[in-house]
Amino acid sequence: MEDPGLKSATSHWQQVLTQPTIAAILLALLCLGLHHSVLSGGWRFDDGDHLNFASTYAPWQYFFMPEITRLQSGANLTPWNTLFYDINLSLFGLNPQGFYMHQLMLIWLTSVATYFLLKLWIAPLWSLMGAATFLVGAPTVHIANEIMTGHYASGLLFTVIALYAYVRAVREQRISLALIGTLFYLLAVTCKEIYVPLIAIFPFLPVGTLKDRLRFALPFSFVALAYIFWRLHVLGRLFGGYNLGGNYDFLLIIETFRNLPFLLFGNHLVGKFAVIIIGLLILYWIYRRKVNLKLTAAALGLLLFPLIPLVNFPGITAPDRYLYFIGWGLALLVAYLLSLSASKLDKRLAWPIGIILISISWAHSREEQQNLLNMAMPTEKSYEFMLNSHANQVYIEPNFDYYFGAVLPGAVATQKKLAPSSPERARIVPDMEQLAALDLAHISVWSYSDACRCVEDVTATVPARIADYHNKLAQRALSVSLHIENLKATWQFGPYQDGEYAIMINNQGFFPLPRSGAHSYPRKTLEGYILYKSPQGWITKSPQFHIDSLIQPRWEWSRL
Fold it and tell me: Given 1.20.140, 2.60.40, 3.40.50, 2.10.25, which CATH number is that of 473-559?
């Protein structure tokens, strides 16, 4: 990758544009221009749960007490995510605009750090192009619009700084720079496990000798080793994410990876054109022996390996946070290929290619932003309603989805902690049984509607819904085997092969489950019941259960 010929002479205006201060300002303007609309966004997706967790526990608890750390996620080790909310709560309270501004700041700083990293090998102008490509990418749009991905944004910034410091350390033979890089690597691994494999590419980087690269990688290796023991202590496993069954569909993994370029550029004619352009550039420069194949293979492994546990569940179907690191890596690749083309072929060829690729990426990002806003609308409007509701109101999710019952009350609880004198808010009704028990003469029922894209009063529809539920409810055969142990829940339902099984979780709502499986579950107790919906329309349910991993970790029940 390192080629002095790439740092060719540039015109005066190019030299001005690529002065570090000017470049940073240009990237700031681009970042704000692309993503300023997020500053009018509200709470979305998982925000309520994270707000509540951050306002409940102190940093020393969620970083250093495993029984607290794992409560945030039984599948991932991400204490920095809580710290991100903690810092923002201290600075901005329950004003989401401050959170979004923090997010944009992280994205901008990552683009600046990317510019400096690329400048170690290629000309400043193409380094600026690479940083701009990162800002325009579809995954960056998702990160900018989702506060809950602050740990992804923080982690990538720390990773880029760590990589930059490492390369400088090898070049300048300065252990102090390696230690600075190690510090940022340590911060990165507390953000997200996808950044842990960074050290895998160190031996292949085009800098210094192999001996030097290994020597300066040593302090990073100590952090990686410490992370392994930390993760084992907290989660009890090194790999797996949400997939605790240990079953991996090789063909599905290959198909998912094959589809990644089209997620990043769009699975349409224009997006495919961009993928073809990049593919042809890669093949040409491989043929010309200008692509470091060992480094490329190591980088692909670094970027793709952490995605394997996500393929089965929850799946990789959009250019969202799961592809943020990959989108950044693609930006570096594009910058390098364009720099090669400008230096070895013709600048008049490189510039149009760069503009075409950025334009296609930008157009796809606009499409993704609209898709994301549509997805966010139910939670955003529901948070807005809950935080301004009254005690004589209740909220129901149309399908009594567990997700809403898990995240919405967290925002209300946080509001109460920050402002104890705030009025009592609406509570969430998690199922039809509790809805039927309400006194509708004194309580109004509210729910999100796609028709108006708002939370509306649905009290008048409740009697009909309750009657329909009772007409479908039947005493039919059902069997349940449920077990919680070692930070996971395992289950087996029967006797039906088709239809839909769901579990009522801790009075929060229903979570659909396959007939058998395993899922991370970091808590010691679990209560609720099992609901089955048949293809014919009738439903049946189990009695209530209460499981305690220390006293009674298993529940077996059946009805013939």
Answer: 2.60.40
